[in-house]
């Protein structure tokens, strides 16, 4: 029985020639995508055993559970967003994280804020820490931009959409707002977006009307525009 188990382990590992053949594929994929999941590597014909050997030899680095990167890959300031995008492909970087990415706040988020659909599965706690908010399918598709971070395509809400979403989550009471970002951050985001300008007043107003928060936002915007 022990002998049979040993034979199965041997057969499950690629021969040295297979390892040499798979290794360039893995390196090429990781150079192109920055960070890769096991499923992406498998689709490219790279076996789990090859990745394990590359990890042992220091040819790849494992970023927590199920993410791999080359050891000499350049690390971007927004590395955590790239990791989050790989872990939650359907998610969109939102609220405080989106505001920080667009350089519209001095606040440094302690976690990555991700918007997911109403029925999307919420991943288990991972590294980097992520805070999830559920958006309707319509809200989740509006104002989405795609940015490349460390070779990864990362979906991030636009500045105008982010400002409006911050107002939607500005309250401090109620089940939906138990992780509220607060009014001050929403006002800071609006002020900086208008000052830069990274968002036109008409863009913000359009998103606000669709989201049903224009009545609450208009007095603040009018005052900011009037004060220059």
Structure, briefly:
This protein has 228 residues and is of the alpha+beta class. The chain is built from 11 helices and 8 strands. Residues 1-11 and 172-177 have low confidence and may be disordered.
What does it look like?
The chain has 11 helices and 8 strands. Strand 7 and strand 8 form a beta hairpin. 49% of the residues lie in helices and 13% in strands. Mean pLDDT is 84; it is low at 1-11 and 172-177. The protein has helices at residues 2-12, 16-33, 38-43, 48-56, 79-87, 95-101, 137-141, 159-168, 183-195, 201-211, 214-226, and strands at residues 35-36, 61-62, 68-69, 92-93, 112-116, 130-134, 144-149, 152-157. The strands form 3 sheets. A 3-stranded antiparallel beta sheet has the order 1-3-2, with helices on both faces. It has a 3-stranded mixed beta sheet with strand order 4-5-6. The chain is an alpha+beta fold and 228 residues long. Helix 6 runs antiparallel to helix 8 (159-168). The termini are far apart.
Name the poorly predicted regions: 1-11, 172-177
> Shape, please?
elongated
**Cα end-to-end separation:** 80 Å
Number of helices: 11
Strand fraction band? Answer: 5-15%
Largest sheet geometry: 3 strands, antiparallel
Radius of gyration: 22 Å
Number of strands: 8
Mean of pLDDT: 84
Helix content: 40-55%
């Amino acid at each position: 029985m022990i002998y049979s188990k040993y034979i199965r382990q041997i057969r499950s590992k690629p021969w040295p020639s297979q390892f040499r053949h798979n290794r360039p594929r893995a390196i090429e994929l990781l150079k192109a995508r920055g960070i890769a999941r096991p499923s992406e590597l498998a689709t490219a014909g790279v076996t789990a055993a090859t990745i394990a050997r590359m990890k042992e030899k220091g040819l790849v680095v494992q970023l927590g559970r199920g993410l791999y990167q080359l050891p000499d890959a350049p690390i971007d300031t927004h590395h955590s967003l790239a990791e989050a995008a790989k872990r939650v492909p359907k998610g969109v970087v939102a609220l405080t994280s989106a505001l920080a990415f667009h350089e519209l706040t001095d606040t440094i988020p302690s976690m990555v804020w991700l918007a997911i659909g109403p029925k999307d599965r919420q991943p288990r706690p991972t590294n980097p820490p992520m805070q999830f908010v559920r958006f309707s399918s319509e809200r989740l598709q509006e104002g989405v931009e795609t940015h490349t971070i460390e070779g990864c395509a990362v979906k991030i809400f636009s500045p105008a959409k982010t400002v409006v979403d911050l107002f939607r989550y500005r309250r401090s009471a109620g089940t939906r707002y138990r992780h509220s970002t607060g009014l001050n951050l929403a006002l800071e985001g609006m002020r900086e977006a208008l000052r830069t300008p990274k968002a036109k007043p008409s863009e913000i107003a359009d998103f606000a009307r669709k989201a049903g928060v224009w009545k609450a936002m208009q007095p603040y915007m009018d005052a900011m525009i009037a004060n220059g």
